[in-house]
Amino acid sequence: MRLKIALVALMTLALILPGVHAKSNVVYVASIDGMITGYTVDQFDRYISEAERNNAEAIIIQLNTPGGRSDAMQAIVTRIQSAKVPVIIYVYPSGGMAASAGTYIALSSHLIAMAPGTVIGACRPILGYGQNGSIVEAPPKITNFYVTYLRELARMSGRNETLAEEFITEDRSVTPEEALKYGVIEVIAANVDELLQKADGMETKVPVAGKGKVTLHLKGAEVVYIEPSFRDTVVKYITDPTIAYLLLNIGLIGLIFGFLTPGWHVPETMGAIMLVLGLMGLGYFGYSSAALVLIGLAMIFFVAEALTPTFGLFTVAGVITFVLGGIMLFSGGGEYLVTGETYQTLRIAIIVMAILLGLFFLFGMAAVVRAHRRTPEAGKEELVGEIGKVVEDLDPEGIVKLRGELWRAETNGENIPVGERVRVVEVRGLTLIVEKVEEKKEGV
Predict the structure, then answer these.
(1) Which of 116, 112, 208 shows the shortest CA–CA distance to 164?
(2) Which sequence positions are flagged as catalytic?
């Protein structure tokens, strides 16, 4: 009976206490800026997962992209459609765009908003660029696939299918006012606060996973911004096509120049780093894969330092790439691998481990390699000039003790009795040629 009374009391308190449900009224805001690549897939997943873990009312992703890779775009679309919280794509800031792959991502979202002065559309698929910079058009089969794909995204969300098709077939782009008029987007807002006010009470255009279509309660919500991490900032720049292209070419030139001028090691070291960064900039890697590539390059630098000592050049390069790889593998700011607090400690551990590895390969492994490379010497370079002691009369052959070992010795016709000190003047095979060491006489 007492248990029932306690349960009723707890339920009553949960209903009447103010603010019990207010804590769940949180909206997360994150930014995606730049090309759509494999890294962008990780960013979307991280941001949406953060909102899901905290049972947010919604997550607003401020998108500004000229487009990017189709496989990355499709992975992002799949992640949005499986999200357990509403995902609002907000084309922002003024002057920004959701072009090409960004259009597909927007049309897959639960709600689309645009800032004044932005553009959406122009998403004809291409295969790349020719040597003269001209666009290489995709064949009709690929174009038809993406027309159907985009129309289906528009149909599922109740948006304008005809205009969606024209985004591809006519490379059409529209302003926020046109997009709202023709039923492509739902909100025009100058900032996040205005977006929250206008979108409050709206129903999501597509179902939220496990919840169906939901009504958004955004007015008065607590806004939490997810700041980009250091690795996000680095990736934003190296994934720029121009920068990635330059890194690749400078890296190749550095490697070629280094191989043609052996002994300096600087060109090939810098070339290797730039080549790897250029490959990462192409966007075929995710964060974890890129981190492993950098850590692998660091190991190559450390081993190279041990095999061909460069007075620390390869070690410094190895430490830098190891630290970059560690940062790419783990990062703070509430990301999904570790918490911000754990990352502060982890960052110190990464740096310390990089330095310890560098010192190990710089001194320890280098010494081991040098020892293995050293051939046992019993010739002039090592024994000539050494002092030994006669243990068997040299007449003129006998035995001397040198460095704690017994050696067959011979003189140039001189007889030297046991106990005398001798100096090695030559080595013939395994026989030492010695002479007597004259003792210095003290002056009177």
Answers:
(1) 112
(2) 100, 141
